[in-house]
Amino acid sequence: MKHTTLPGTQINIINEVQRGRFKHVLFDFDGTVSLLREGWQLVMGPLMVEIIRGESSESCPEIEEEVREYIEDSTGIQTILQMEHLVEMVRAHRRVHENKILDAQGYKKIYNDRLMERVNERIAKLERGELTPEDVTLRGALDFLERLSQKNVTMYIFSGTDRDDVRNEARLVGVAAYFQEIWGALREYKDYNKEMVLKEIIAKNDLHGSEVLIVGDGPVEIRNARASDCVSIGVASDEIAGHGWNMEKYPRLVNAGADIMIPDFADGPALIDYLFPQ
After folding, report:
1. What is the pLDDT of residues 46-55, one digit of tens each?
2. Are 12 and 262 contacting, i.e. CB atoms less than 8 angstroms apart?
């Protein structure tokens, strides 16, 4: 994949874009700013396989691969849509009797209950002072948000996580004050999705593509950016380490249309200088 690396940094420029005109910046949250939900794929993946497999305990490599590919491609969309797809996969594999198949909300509750065991442990440590906000955010993210907030831009979070949860978690990791609005999933997909939010911001503020910057670690928000001619930063982060490249994410984000690629915000000052040239 061809790119130019800014000297002395890990910032990869995939596409030359118009810079310095940004007025509105939209951030994904989990894996882009916050690490509180790090490992969600390790909860969702085995759960999906378990549900599709039904009562069978045999190994199912083909189901595992199908689930892995789906999760990779759907990172960034609302959980309820992933669960709707799970219902479709359960039916397609015909291993579970129809009267035992739950609806998407039912599967979402099982998933959230399992995931929140991990998340709540981290939140408890954060509240006890055993973890700091720097420990539960991507490297350099807090400093980057502070620097960006000084650039006369309006900042937002738009997340696939449930709205009440993402607002609470943004407060806990110390970033809520930077954002004019924090959007998250509502019960009905039609009431909120990333594409809808982006189009509303563009229309309401009479914006043009290079006036909007989107930052995220999922293909979904990067594709949304490309579809609306916005500039995008793909964050191919190693969420376990909290910094550095995850080279499995990298090609997915580039293929989705990312203009700039970063592993984290350690080069935040240089990234700000690039986005807002003097």
Report:
1. 999 999 999 8
2. yes
